[in-house]
């Protein structure tokens, strides 16, 4: 037996040679290829239907995408609306979460009631209320000494202690009012997300910061929140994408400078509904794709020190599909 | 290594740490039952005792990570956590408590480094945020300290990229960056692999030699014997005995101390090697026959 040199690289092959670098064949994944072929056929069928079915009318859809009022609505209602509502929502949400977790019962109670209220009201109803209801109830808001007007009329003063008057009727149908409505609603959801994030940070972190003499506010801003962001960012990405689509609810205010409203009225006017729908969908897809890229970088930033994506290399989807490289 | 003795310092001035009749309960469980300990400036004291005897709790009471129910703790003559206004105690606000903690460094069993900051940022954080040091000065001092604990080349590494021993050395340097008068160590080596214990103990030894006042909870008998000026043996929430390490550890006066040391010694001769006390989380009170209810 010992005269036959084994070829398999056994460590006890008697040749005295030590095993060298590994050039192993990957595990074959035949079903991946089958699935890929199947998907390719389906995609081909879909594309052929696009080409052969004139009702799609992609040419007109592309035109609609570039109409001035559509672009205007996209920029103001959809993009500015999303950004504004999310800034308000995330900022106020984190404040509410900190209030909820504080040892001050008044702050915790206010935050709990706020979250309860805004999570219970449908956004469409809330926006309708802001656009129509508030203006009807309080046509203008006077800023001054509380009960100053009642006091002044009772005492017969000429000055009713009002310093500044806001015309709610005019304000309530502006984009800003819509952003406030969406943002206040979003803050209630963000508060819960931020609370989960803050609770996910190990208590030892707070204790270490306290032991260094950092006061609670600094501890929160410098130590706890940056680590909580790692947990907060992914669901916030979800919320942002949902907000892009929820800006179409601004019609309840009513606000017309918004993507879906604009494409809808073009569809109704031209009686070519499908292409205008496709135009709206295409814009939503583009905006959301850009946001997802942004989320990737945010996650990478807040994951620093934790072995986040980008720091540990992963094989690309194509490489994994083909089963080359890596250890799978 | 010879022990530093500074007897002239010890019994003349006011103690840096004075704990008087400190009591503390968690719900119905009284963990500290009247602790009296004085630690003078420059002294290195080790706290010994079986698991559950209240060592960690007492250490955390000193820098107010736990509140105490009774007694008083003074650090550098200042009553910790309260203000005495004509015999009535008033809780200090958070800011004032934070200010009191600035002079007390603490090193945790599980390091508790800030994982989202590099080693040097961990060291710079409190001096910049709390003491208002300029970033340049803070960086300079942080670099010095990292060099002192032998990690000058790891300044830009995140904690997750460091070994346990390296992380604990960064944690010690982080505490030192605030230039504390007192350092508290809670089993700083018991979360470490045996071969990493030595590097951390060496840093602590240097610190002791440099005159730092230290209270060290440890199961490292050789460290207690060689580096500490005094050992305090706790059991069941009381100080059973204390004194010179040679005396307490070689010739203990109390049965409970004897039992504790016997058990540790038998462990030391077991397969544990240098890893004495690394078996944290196991309640030893049962097998030593000591009850601490
Ligand atoms: N946060 C807490 N809540 C309730 N009980 C606690 C808490 N922390 C400690 N204890 C209890 O207090 C007692 C003393 O705990 P402590 O951690 O001070 O002991 P120790 O001497 O440090 O023990 P070890 O050597 O195991 O670290 C134990 O019975 C423990 O269960
Ligand atoms: Mg302990």
What report would you give on this structure?
The complex is a heterodimer of chains A (328) and B (293). Chain A is mainly alpha-helical and 328 residues long. In chain A, 67% of the residues lie in helices and 3% in strands. Chain A has a domain at 57-141 and 172-302: Orthogonal Bundle (MetI-like fold). Chain A has a two-stranded antiparallel ribbon with strand order 1-2. The longest helix of chain A is centred in the first third of the chain and has 34 residues, at 68-101. The longest helix of chain B has 16 residues, at 194-209. Chain B has a six-stranded mixed sheet, with helices on both faces. Chain B has a four-stranded antiparallel sheet with strand order 2-1-4-5, covered by helices on one side. Chain B is 36% helix and 23% strand. The radius of gyration of chain B is 19 Å and the shape is globular. Residues 26, 29, 31, 49, 51-57, 280 of chain B line the site of adenosine-5'-triphosphate.
What is the name of the CATH architecture of the domain at 57-141 and 172-302 in chain A?
Orthogonal Bundle
Number of helices of chain B: 11
- Secondary structure class of chain A reads mainly alpha
Tell me the structural class of chain B. Answer: alpha/beta
| Helical fraction of chain B | 25-40%
Query: SSE order of chain B, as H and E?
Result: HEEEHEEEEHEHHHEHEHEEHHH
Gross morphology of chain B: globular
GO molecular function (chain B): ATP binding
Subcellular location (chain B): Cell membrane
Domain ABC transporter (chain B): 17-261
Keywords (chain B): ATP-binding, Cell membrane, Membrane, Nucleotide-binding, Transport
